[in-house]
Each structure stands twice: as structure tokens, then as C-alpha cells.
Task: inverse folding
């Protein structure tokens, strides 16, 4: 399984992002902490696949 998160100084100044996107992983956790659902997050960031988001959540346990 590929890594779900990448970090590159050339992309978003090294902020960890979802693989293949420019969406910071922190955005997912911000959404969830604010009471939004995973579906809300995915609707707001269509470049992030459900598979990647779930993988990040599983790895954060």
C-alpha cells in the first residue's frame, strides 16, 4: 500500500498533504474536530479520495 501522506518542500512548503494533491492533511482533522463528517470534507476537497482519507484516519489511531 502506498503512503497516503507526502511532504515536499516544493509542494505547500513541506506541509504534509494527501498524496497526489495539495490538500493539507490537517484540513481533514480540522473538519472532524469541528463536527463535520468525512463526507463533508470529501465534498469540500474532491481531489482527496475516500480511500486516502480513510487510510490517514486508520494510520492516525
Result:
Amino acid at each position: 500500500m502506498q503512503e497516503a501522506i507526502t511532504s515536499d518542500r516544493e509542494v505547500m512548503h513541506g506541509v504534509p498533504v494527501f498524496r497526489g494533491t495539495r490538500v493539507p492533511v490537517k484540513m481533514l482533522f480540522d473538519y472532524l474536530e469541528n463536527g463535520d463528517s468525512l463526507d463533508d470534507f470529501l465534498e469540500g476537497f474532491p481531489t482527496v479520495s475516500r480511500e486516502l482519507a480513510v487510510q490517514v484516519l486508520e494510520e492516525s489511531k
